[in-house]
Specification:
Number of domains of chain B: 2
CATH topology of the largest domain in chain B: MetI-like fold
Strand content of chain C: under 5%
Strand order of the largest sheet of chain C: 1-2
Structural class of chain C: mainly alpha
Distance between the termini of chain B: 24 Å
CATH architecture of one domain in chain C: Orthogonal Bundle
Order of helices and strands of chain B: HHHHHHHHHHH
Strand content of chain B: under 5%
Largest sheet of chain B: none
Number of helices of chain B: 11
Order of helices and strands of chain C: HEEHHHHEEHHHHH
Helix content of chain B: over 70%
Largest sheet of chain C: 2 strands, antiparallel
Chains: A alpha/beta (274), B mainly alpha (270), C mainly alpha (297)
Oligomer: heterotrimer
Structural class of chain B: mainly alpha
Distance between the termini of chain C: 29 Å
């Protein structure tokens, strides 16, 4: 069991209200969440449930209306300034005028690493995501899946202990997606980083996570948490393709689906995943 | 990793994105142009049209061949004014746009001046510019060219500076990048192709403005002066030969700026 | 956002704009007061800042004051302002006709080019090339051709020549902008039209024309400014009296003794340009329901 004393993320009583003209939209309503060091946690829910908003708050790209967010025991803002996390979005967001290698080096360049270090780190990461042959290509010469790998490599550039990922595989086709999931498991095992992962795919959330946080919209709330690891799938770092056929995998999938639909899904009755 | 082994590495060399250049897009305009010239020649010969109305292409061509040295001199003189004006105008336009995008108040203060400059015929300023600078120097002509370039470059650059995508802005926030770092790594590179779009739009304008400014006074030399002096001595084929030189000059400016623009936007297809 | 805040924002914008103009005027007079008389030279002899003598560089208030004084020393001469306004009206009228011709020609060319790919490849390079032809070269040509024309009660005048030359500049932005707009619909929408079995004409009316509006509006505005520029330049090159163009040249000739006078027609030119752009802007309001999306470029 991981020690909860050094939690990667600690979200306490967070509200986020957007004011648009006269309308008020409650994006997040009294959310509490803890992500342990090295733990993989997914946020899942329908559009508008505030899962991306929650991730943006943790990344300090947005500020909560009330409540507190701690990352590695310090305020989110301080964690951002200290570069305690790496981030990847649904769009790869690569700079089109930089080469693949240049894109991975970007955060290192911004934070003043010497050129030689940047080069070798980028080469290392390209090896990790299997794109060594494409270092000098430009993003427009890569497929969507390859661009997303570059974005993940970029997120890993500074060896963060926390990865924030906002539907990074959302725009990919199913085959590419499963391959990327396998690679993400491997990468997480190699780096030991904690991950907060936003998705709207149930199998993806279950396959990748130690715990799946199910959210509901209007107002955005946490419905329940499905402990996939405790449900019998083992630690997230050890997953392989075989897991996709395991019975406990289907049990967890059914449990998440049940929570999302607000009523027990047919055939899933009696399955207790917790 | 194995999934990639099948993918052959694509050509990394940077290419200009003139992607769908088919044979048709070269042949068609050439055929059209040749047909037009042929009809023109035929009309002049068959209807016995006076050179005063319009000279035959063959006459223009022979004048062009006979006077190519002086035409080239004129083109160089006008081209120099246009080029200096274009560079100065682009510099001012970019700097002003950077200033306007950084300081909102300046942006708003510039609105009426920019509006006035973008609708006023810049060449109408030529006479007062000659008065300001004196008719003995080329400055007035360069300024006319510069002013006609400044506005398109300013407007396009300003637009480019505001095109930074949300994901790039988020990324820079996540990296806790300082304002100068954001400008250098995201804002300015995003705006660069827009700068050259403005420059391409203004390129032939710069040539025409510099040329028309010659019409309002100033020193001898340059295609504009040559066109009018050839026309006033009733040597119409020669006047048209100079016009052809002017078209060539304008086209050269356009093509060069177009290529530069394509070069700077070659990776922006996605 | 309530009504009052938009109002205060408008007022603020207006004040800042006014401040910008005043700042420019102040800069002008400060340079005149403190700049060297012979101007500022860079390198050997490149004069980059103007001479500041009273003859070369009038005060800004002299320019304004000159507008209220009579044009010439003749006893019944009107004020410079009213002469400039008259000329502005004259130029605006010719430019409007030129703009209309230009818009029609531009639209027809754009339709032709969007309908036939071969027409596009054949014409577009020449359309672009046409704008590198210096106006002063075609202006006398058009007048000569025009003077040979006369049918029925119609007689070709220099004003018609100027309109045609204005149209020569005005058609370009419309042709290019409309072509881009007509080609702008998404692949999906075009496929949808094909799936409905709709012909070119119907898909033009129901898809291509509406989606070209966001591209057309800036093109029309640009074309209005071009028509004004073309009119002024053509007035100069074929010496048509009555408009701003000729006035610029005439007033500049008296700049020797009366430097502020040369600036009067320039204010007129700005006025004509702003009125033309504003009028097209009003036209844009009428087409607003279609302009839901901004063009990408």
């Amino acid at each position: 069991m991981r020690a909860m004393t050094s939690a990667a993320i600690q979200v306490t009583g967070v509200h986020r209200v957007f004011t648009r003209k006269k309308d008020q939209v409650v994006a997040l309503d009294d959310v509490d969440l803890t992500v342990g060091a090295g733990e993989f946690v997914s946020l899942i829910g329908p559009s508008g449930c505030g899962k991306s908003t929650l991730l943006r708050l943790v990344a300090d790209l947005d500020a909560p209306t009330s409540g507190s967010i701690q990352v590695f025991g310090k305020p989110a803002r301080q964690a951002r300034l200290d570069q305690d996390y790496g981030i990847a979005f649904q769009q790869a967001g690569l700079l089109p005028w930089r080469t693949v290698s240049g894109n991975i080096e970007l955060p290192l360049a911004l934070h003043g690493y010497p050129k030689a270090d940047r080069r070798s780190r980028a080469a290392e990461l390209l090896e990790l995501v299997g794109l060594s042959d494409f270092a000098q290509h430009h993003p427009d010469q890569l497929s969507g899946g390859m661009q997303q790998r570059v974005a993940i490599a970029r997120a890993l550039a500074e060896r963060p202990r926390l990865l924030l990922m906002d539907e990074p595989f959302g725009a990919l086709d199913e085959m590419t997606r499963e391959r990327m999931q396998n690679e993400l498991v491997r990468i997480c095992a190699e780096t030991g980083a904690a991950v907060l992962f936003v998705t709207h795919s149930i199998p993806e959330a279950v396959f990748l996570s130690d715990r799946v946080v199910v959210m509901s919209p209007r107002p955005g709330r946490i419905v329940d948490v499905v402990a996939v690891q405790a449900g019998g799938l083992g630690p997230s770092q050890d997953r392989t393709d075989a897991v996709r056929d395991a019975e406990s995998f289907f049990h967890s999938v059914a449990r998440v689906r049940e929570l999302l639909h607000g009523a027990p899904a047919p055939g899933a009755r009696g399955v207790e995943a917790r | 990793m194995s999934a990639l082994s099948g993918q052959s590495a694509r050509d990394v060399r940077a290419r200009l994105p003139i992607t769908d250049a088919r044979a048709m897009s070269v042949v068609a305009p050439v055929v059209f142009g040749a047909a037009l010239l042929g009809l023109w020649q035929l009309a002049v010969v068959a209807l016995d049209i006076d050179a005063y109305v319009v000279p035959a292409p063959s006459d223009i061509w022979s004048e062009l061949a006979a006077n190519h040295a002086t035409i080239l001199d004129g083109a160089l003189s006008t081209g120099r004014n246009a080029l200096l004006g274009m560079l100065a105008g682009a510099l001012v336009g970019v700097l002003a746009a950077v200033l306007s995008s950084a300081v909102r108040v300046i942006d708003q203060m510039a609105v009426p001046v920019v509006a006035a400059l973008s609708v006023v015929p810049i060449v109408a300023l030529a006479p007062v510019l000659y008065t300001l600078y004196g008719a003995a120097v080329d400055t007035a002509r360069i300024l006319v060219a510069a002013l006609s370039v400044t506005i398109p470059v300013y407007l396009n650059t300003l637009r480019g500076l505001r095109q930074v995508s949300a994901v790039h802005r988020d990324l820079m926030t996540a990296y806790a990048a300082g304002p100068l770092q954001v400008a250098r790594s995201v804002t300015l590179p995003t705006a660069t192709p827009y700068v050259f779009t403005g420059l391409r739009i203004a390129s032939s304008l710069a040539v025409i403005s510099a040329l028309i400014a010659e019409y309002f006074g100033g020193p001898i030399g340059g295609l504009g002066k040559s066109i009018t002096s050839a026309a006033s001595s009733s040597n119409y084929p020669l006047a048209y030969a100079y016009v052809v030189g002017a078209i060539g000059l304008g086209l050269a400016f356009y093509v060069v700026t177009l290529l530069v623009e394509l070069w700077f936007s070659r990776h922006r297809s996605t | 956002m309530t009504g009052s805040t938009t109002l205060t924002r408008r007022v603020r914008q207006l004040c800042l704009g006014l401040l910008g103009v005043l700042l420019l005027a102040a800069l002008w007079d400060l340079y005149k007061a403190f700049g060297p008389e012979a101007g500022v030279t860079v390198g050997e002899q490149t004069l980059v800042l103007p001479r500041t003598t009273d003859l070369a560089m009038p005060h800004t208030w002299e320019m304004l004051q000159r507008l209220t004084e009579p044009v010439t020393s003749a006893r019944d001469a009107p004020s410079a302002l009213s002469a400039v306004l008259d000329a502005s009206g004259f130029t605006l009228g010719i430019a409007a006709r030129g703009w209309l011709i230009g818009v029609v020609v531009g639209l027809v060319l754009a339709l032709l080019m969007s309908r036939f790919r071969t027409a596009e490849s054949a014409l577009l390079p020449w359309v672009v090339l046409s704008q590198t032809v210096p106006l002063i070269a075609i202006a006398p040509l058009v007048r000569r051709w025009g003077s040979a024309l006369s049918f029925g009660g119609f007689e070709w005048t220099s004003e018609h020549s100027v309109s045609v030359i204005a149209a020569y500049l005005a058609f370009f932005p419309v042709a290019v902008g409309a072509l881009r707009g007509l080609k702008s619909p998404d692949r999906t929408h075009v496929d949808l039209m094909t799936a409905y079995g709709v012909g070119w004409w119907r898909s033009l009316v129901s898809l291509r024309l509406p989606s070209s509006v966001p591209f057309l509006l800036p093109a029309l505005r640009l074309s209005a400014a071009s028509a004004v520029i073309g009119t002024v330049v053509a007035e100069v090159s074929i010496s048509l009296r009555g408009g701003i163009g000729r006035m610029v040249v005439e007033f500049a000739q008296s700049a020797g003794g009366d430097p502020a006078k040369a600036w009067a027609p320039i204010f007129g030119a700005v006025l004509v340009g702003l009125v033309a752009a504003g009028a097209v802007g009003l036209l844009g309001l009428a087409l607003r329901p279609f302009a839901l999306t901004e063009p990408v470029r």
